[in-house]
Design a protein that fits this description.
This protein is an alpha+beta fold. The chain is built from four helices and six strands; from the N terminus they run αβαβαββαββ. It is globular and about 50 Å long.
Length: 138
């Protein structure tokens, strides 16, 4: 039974996720639409929010330009985009969103331009019959 005082979860919404990656060098803000992405074969599909969050972290680790950044907060210091702490942060933040059954979008600077990660929450009715779900996490 669903608790009326808690937000809906991914299982309440009966969703799974289609993951897409876009690399672009063009004008900022130019990217595909959700409908365009859902019409394509996804890079990966996921049945669990944990699997989708792991994918986001792995893509940030693999494709982020390793710029040095100053850390804010009481500890301060210096970090690097795509370092293990940043990847852990991305996984954790992604999981919070995905556990609700929502879509999640991440954008960052890659070595040759912007990288957009799209993790689309998809209901069975939205899922096209010709989409291959090979490699689904379970």
């Amino acid at each position: 039974m669903t608790n009326p005082y808690l937000p809906p979860s991914h299982s309440d919404r009966d969703v799974h996720w289609h993951a897409y990656i876009e690399r672009c060098c063009g004008a900022p803000g130019v990217h595909s639409t959700r409908d365009e992405r859902l019409a394509q074969q996804p890079e990966e599909t996921f049945r669990t929010p944990e699997g989708a969050a792991e994918w986001v972290g792995a893509m940030v680790a693999a494709y982020a330009r390793k710029d040095e950044v100053r850390l804010i907060g009481p500890m301060g210091g210096v970090g690097q985009v795509g370092d293990p702490d940043h990847v852990m942060h991305e996984r954790r933040e992604s999981l919070v969103i995905l556990l609700r059954g929502d879509s999640h979008y991440v954008d960052f600077r890659g070595e040759t331009g912007r990288v957009h990660l799209w993790v689309e929450a998809v209901t069975p009715d939205e899922c096209k019959e010709d989409i291959v779900h090979d490699g689904d996490d379970q």
